[in-house]
Design brief:
This protein is an alpha/beta fold and 361 residues long. The chain has 15 helices and 12 strands. Bound molecules: zinc ion (ZN).
């Protein structure tokens, strides 16, 4: 290796970490939904807001109406702030177009952002919600949009993963299984939004289909969590979503360590839950879900890397892996979860290159 042009950085007595991997985001969208906070505070649930044409459906309207340029510029700003908070790799889902051409367009926009240098792992989530024009006709939506989007996506290699939002009011178990089996046959890797608001048996289905990760899991049964562990399915917990949805409850993180089911963490950044900082997610994982600092940091790094099938190239500081490195102003790893909503970073490196230097802290 030629190191003649290498630069040296003094990190003495500073906590150095692998870059955070945000393994579950909906970061590609247009617009905002700040008005929904007041609705949530009035006691309206996520599903009630959706039924009134808000929630995902509003973001679908905004995203469909936005040009590629506007989508890219709004998303770039988010990704840049996430990098400043230590995220060096992003999983980003489609799912705010909900028609064939639109979903493919979102994945093409992601490819363009990737070509600009953002390290993005793209996921097809055409099964995110039933759009208004298919209201009450979910199986027609699956036949006419979801299945063809998988075929096109596999052909054009636009996404690594296929994901489904399995929930009452979204996609049921039989539909979810059909969609994911079809994606597997087309060579895509699988993910699943499971048991977020109710236990529909999503964790069990995730184990049965041996998906790479099942995500949310706030209401999963103990048996489902154990089954996931047996099949090496990673549980991606999203405590920020619970926090911002005002549900007052979190996933049972202890059940995962008892069952030997690995846990990864992510922001779930979306217009419903606008969280750009993995440091803040680590805070809520400890203060809300009562994970240990060690578990939370592993969840934001190496386990998150496995949740997007990147475990062999990122997620830890090891020879042969990408040098995605965070230099903090902290002296030990316990300070990181302890300090709430701080940005503790001094420098962010991506593949050995300094991409962010933050003012002295
Ligand atoms: Zn999600």
């Amino acid at each position: 290796v030629d190191t003649s042009s290498a630069q040296e950085f003094d990190c003495k007595e500073k906590l150095v970490l692998p870059g955070f991997i945000d393994c579950h985001t909906h970061a590609l969208f247009a617009g905002s939904r700040e008005n929904e906070l007041s609705m949530k505070l009035d006691g309206r649930s996520y599903m009630e807001i959706l039924k009134r044409g808000g929630g995902i459906l509003r973001t679908v309207r905004d995203t469909r109406n936005a040009s590629d340029e506007r989508l890219k510029s709004e998303t770039r700003k988010r990704l840049d702030r996430m990098i400043s908070n230590g995220t060096t790799t992003f999983e980003i889902k489609s799912g705010y177009a909900l028609n064939l051409e639109g979903e493919l367009r979102l994945l093409r926009v992601l490819r363009e952002l990737k070509n600009e240098g953002y390290d993005i792992e793209p996921t097809l989530l055409s099964a995110h919600a039933i759009p208004e024009e298919y209201s009450g006709r979910s199986s027609a939506y699956v036949d006419e949009v979801v299945i063809p989007s998988i075929d096109e996506c596999a052909k054009l290699k636009l996404a690594t993963f296929c994901d489904v939002f399995m929930e009452e009011g979204a996609f049921g178990e039989a539909e979810t299984e059909r969609i994911l089996n079809h994606a597997a046959e087309r060579g895509m890797k699988l993910k699943l939004h499971a048991d977020e608001f109710s236990d529909l048996g999503g964790a069990n289905l995730a184990a049965k289909l041996e998906v790479i990760s099942a995500d949310h899991l706030a209401k999963s049964s103990l048996r489902g969590i154990e089954q996931m562990g047996k099949k090496d399915v990673i549980g991606v917990l999203l405590p920020g979503t619970q926090f911002s949805s005002l549900t007052g409850t979190f996933a049972d993180a202890k059940a995962y360590s008892q069952a030997g089911t690995p846990v990864a963490l992510a922001t779930d950044l979306s217009p419903n839950s606008w969280i750009e900082s993995m440091q803040f997610v680590i805070n809520i994982a400890c203060y809300g879900m009562k994970m240990t600092p060690e578990q939370a940091i592993a969840g934001a790094t190496i386990n998150a890397a496995h949740a997007i099938s990147r475990g062999s190239i990122s997620g830890s500081l090891e020879l042969g892996k990408d040098a995605d490195v965070l230099v903090t102003g902290l002296s030990n790893s316990y300070e990181l979860p302890y300090r709430i909503a701080s940005n503790n970073l001094k420098m962010v490196f991506k593949k050995g290159r300094l991409i962010r230097e933050l003012s002295d802290r």
